[in-house]
Write a structure and sequence with these properties.
Blueprint (H helix, E strand, L loop, with lengths): L6 H5 L8 E4 L5 E4 L1 H7 L11 H6 L13 H8 L3 E9 L2 E13 L5 E10 L3 E2 L7 E2 L3 H13 L6 E4 L6 H11 L7 E5 L5 H9 E2 L11 E2 L1 H4 L4 E5 L6 H13 L1 E2 L8 E2 L3 E6 L3 H7 L4 H7 L2 E4 L10 H11 L9 E2 L1 H9 L5 H15 L4 E2 L1 H7 L14 H15 L4 H8 L3 H9 L6 H6 L2
Parallel strand pairs: 6-7, 8-15, 8-16, 9-12, 12-15, 17-18
Antiparallel strand pairs: 1-2, 1-5, 3-4, 4-5, 10-11, 13-14
């Protein structure tokens, strides 16, 4: 990249271990390092100087003027390094990138440059790639930003969210982002474990420790040594067993059941629950000291309702990963997507996956339309298409049911139906000739 700045300053970028660019306070890119060019390619300057917001987002104005967070503007205001998670345009499509902006001052303390470090977030994707976590909605990006920040640390993480919201995938992403990713991620499902079974699973046991202990067994605490221990549904651990877990976390030691030998435990702790642990503490059903031990860094996993904008991407990813016989690839029609968006997902992404899995079985072709989605629900849908009606009448009934389902929120219904609010108004009135003034009045 051509630059009109000191070549020595441009070469400084190669000392960074991440892709880096040199930017002016006016957003102009002056130089890039080798790692940037390897990851994102050469920057095109044939039409004049390149601006960072043009290259990263194809925007015609700075990110904070286009509805995005801008680390450059924030760093200029604070005078300190700032970080933000962005979705960047790359040669591979849209990708999540952890952006860190470092202000560079001259000898008088005046701001002269920014070094922008770009760290690709490989644990998730904004497109239908091979990543386990996919999404691009604000709620998803907030969650992913927290995962990418805490991942490289050893801090205990508590994942909180509804059933089916992807807590196990988030735990896997935390492990992949950690410095322990070369070791094992070990999962213990805590729900329904008796005291003996809980201790045996977590600490292991020696032969003869109890009836049925016919051999010595390694515990999960030992299996997770050097890696990550994931305790799923930690809120389901009975109160008498919580003290045993607390002792393991506080002392870093344990004894296998039936053994007198004390062993060391070295793992990163990640816990997950759909329960309100703070309320359980108040009710006396969850130990307060254990709660503060596991809740060092809480992360909320958004429900599917909180990230409904991700549904098309999630659906495409699920269909891609659930290919039919002979590698058949399935596709959703717009009407099918509209039905899926209008559905109320009590089981979140897990329920969406089940609906699409049934749709694959029911579909006669590789195109899944609204009728197949309707059948795959396995019960009457809140937006069931009526029969023996004209196409216009069916559309009106469908929109009326959506309005009822979403409490007359026209913007939401219009987004689900893929039409403008004004078009929604006209269709609900049963006329395409409503003038603009009346349409505006009905908003």
């Amino acid at each position: 990249l051509a630059t009109d700045t000191d070549p020595a300053i441009a070469r400084m970028l190669d000392s960074y271990e991440h892709p880096a660019i040199l930017v002016t306070p006016a957003y102009r890119i002056l130089a890039t390092n080798d790692l940037y060019r390897e990851a994102f390619g050469e920057i095109d300057t044939r039409n004049g100087p390149a601006r960072c917001y043009q290259v990263s987002h194809n925007f015609d104005r700075p990110c904070d003027q286009a509805g995005e967070d801008c680390p450059l503007a924030t760093a200029a205001s604070s005078g300190q390094r700032e970080r933000v998670l962005h979705i960047h345009q790359t040669p591979r499509g849209e990708e999540h990138v952890d952006v860190e902006m470092l202000p560079i001052l001259d000898e008088q303390g005046a701001l002269v440059y920014f070094v922008e470090l770009l760290k690709p977030v490989s644990i998730a994707g904004a497109g239908a790639g091979d990543q386990t976590m996919v999404g691009a909605s604000p709620a998803f990006n907030r969650m992913l930003s927290l995962i990418s920040r805490v991942g490289p640390t050893n801090a205990a993480v508590l994942l909180q969210g509804e059933s089916g919201s992807g807590k196990e995938l988030a735990a896997r992403a935390l492990h992949q982002a950690s410095l322990r990713n070369a070791k094992a991620l070990v999962t213990l499902e805590c729900a329904g474990l008796s005291e003996t079974l809980f201790e045996s699973e977590l600490f292991g046991h020696v032969k003869g420790a109890f009836t049925g202990a016919n051999y010595t067994r390694q515990g999960l605490a030992e299996a997770a040594h050097g890696g990550t221990l994931f305790l799923d549904e930690v809120g389901d651990i009975p109160l008498p067993l919580q003290v045993k877990l607390l002792r393991l976390i506080e002392t870093g030691t344990y004894r296998p059941v039936g053994s007198t030998q004390v062993r060391q435990a070295d793992f990163r702790l990640v816990c997950a629950t759909h329960r309100n642990l703070e309320q359980m503490v108040e009710e006396g059903t969850f130990r307060q000291d254990l709660y503060y031990r596991i809740n060092v860094f809480p992360i909320h996993l958004p429900s599917l309702a909180e990230r409904i904008a991700d549904l098309p991407l999630l659906a495409r990813t699920i269909l891609r990963d659930s290919q039919g016989p002979g590698g058949k690839t399935f596709h959703l029609t717009e009407s099918a997507l509209s039905l899926l968006k209008a559905h109320q997902y009590k089981g979140n992404i897990r329920e969406l996956r089940n609906i699409l899995s049934r749709a694959i079985v029911l579909a006669n072709t590789n195109v899944i339309d609204a009728s197949v989605i309707q059948q795959s629900h396995g019960r009457a849908s809140a937006v069931e298409p009526p029969r023996n009606l004209s196409l216009k009448a069916m559309e009106l009934r469908y929109l009326q049911q959506l309005m009822q389902e979403h409490k007359d929120d026209r913007e939401t219904v219009a987004a689900i139906a893929g039409i403008s609010v004004r078009s929604l108004y006209r269709k609900l009135q049963g006329s395409d000739g409503v003038d603009e003034e009346k349409s505006d009045h009905g908003r």
